[in-house]
Design the sequence.
């Protein structure tokens, strides 16, 4: 994460916890806790305080944060106390502890504590960075459009000039395809930044291209569950010792299954995107190539994230209602994509359990050898 990106996160958190616009979130948490305590003694219901807190939480969206900023909130145990995640957590706590108000109070207090402790840490960071931030700094400014961050990590990483050349060729094809289906030009996709480490490129896309890109990614992710399950089983088979011929035959079948799923992912994504975005037949070839390469990038562990600029209420009021609705839908699409990515990560990192039969087969094969 860059220094200005970290500084912007500290401002973002401060505005959402302490500003009047967001209703001073810590106070709303405290009011809810007091209402819960009063309800134990036969006092008033806590529902009004709960609704008031959830109304404030409802206003907090993460769509204008980068993935690195969101990860920072996770590291500081703050994400679960903000936005829709917090509302779902509170609803779950109340559902699971209907007869234990004391237990509810402890858990809600813990959410507030995480938020307060995280805010204190970020405040310290902001004060520490103050000497390095220009006095007239007013947040990272982008031209009209959507910041789109490409993270070349894991098997999609760029380690040498050959990898770089291949990645550039693939993303040229992807960019050309995205531009074509969005009635734009490839050069409309701007490269506005690059970072070291796992190599990261920041692109600036117009809204039409970004929406097309987001629809493709979310559709690909929705269709990948079976593919990743097969990959997990294949990795498990690799780690089990049993008859080599049987092992080779099983792995071959699984590899064929992976290839079949890849084809299905492309076909299903192209079909849905074509219908949803009303893409003409003469653009199908470019769309198909873009989908294949985007799918391959995600499969290898590459990460794609969209960051929408914050919109002030007065600007939203002056926008055309159709445009405002489109941007609202896009923000929801970005949130959905992030949830899908987390679901895929869970699938990948949940181990495949060995069955007794598999273990017995391994033992029998070892005895025969």
Sequence:
């Amino acid at each position: 994460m860059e220094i200005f990106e970290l500084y912007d996160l500290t401002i973002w958190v401060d505005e959402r916890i302490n500003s009047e616009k967001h209703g001073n979130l810590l106070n709303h948490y405290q009011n809810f806790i007091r209402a819960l305590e009063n309800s134990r003694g036969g006092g008033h219901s806590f529902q009004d305080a709960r609704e008031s807190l959830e109304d404030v939480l409802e206003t907090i969206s993460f769509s204008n944060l980068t993935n690195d900023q969101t990860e920072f909130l996770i590291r500081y145990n703050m994400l679960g106390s903000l936005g829709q995640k917090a509302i779902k957590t509170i609803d779950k706590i109340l559902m699971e502890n209907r007869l234990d108000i004391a237990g509810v109070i402890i858990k809600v207090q813990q959410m507030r504590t995480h938020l307060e402790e995280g805010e204190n840490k970020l405040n310290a960071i902001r004060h520490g960075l103050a000497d390095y931030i220009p006095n007239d700094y007013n947040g990272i400014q982008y031209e009209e459009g959507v910041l789109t961050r490409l993270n070349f990590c894991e098997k999609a990483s760029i380690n040498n000039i050959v990898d770089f050349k291949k990645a550039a060729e693939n993303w040229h094809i992807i960019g050309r395809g995205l531009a074509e289906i969005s009635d734009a030009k490839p050069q409309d996709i701007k490269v506005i930044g690059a970072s070291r480490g796992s190599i990261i490129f920041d692109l600036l896309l117009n809204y039409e291209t970004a929406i097309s890109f987001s629809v493709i990614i979310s559709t690909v992710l929705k269709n990948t569950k079976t593919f990743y399950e097969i990959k997990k089983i294949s990795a498990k088979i690799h780690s089990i010792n049993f008859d080599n011929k049987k092992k080779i035959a099983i792995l071959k079948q699984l590899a064929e299954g992976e290839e079949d799923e890849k084809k299905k992912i492309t076909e299903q994504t192209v079909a849905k995107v074509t219908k949803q975005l009303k893409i003409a037949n003469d653009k199908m070839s470019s769309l198909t190539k873009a989908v294949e390469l985007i799918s391959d990038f995600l499969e290898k562990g590459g990460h794609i994230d969209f960051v929408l600029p914050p919109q002030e209420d007065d600007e939203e009021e002056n926008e055309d209602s159709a445009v405002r609705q489109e941007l609202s839908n896009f923000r929801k699409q970005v949130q959905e994509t992030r949830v899908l990515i987390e679901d895929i990560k869970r699938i990948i990192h949940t181990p495949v359990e060995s069955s007794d039969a598999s273990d017995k087969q391994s033992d029998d094969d070892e005895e025969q050898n």
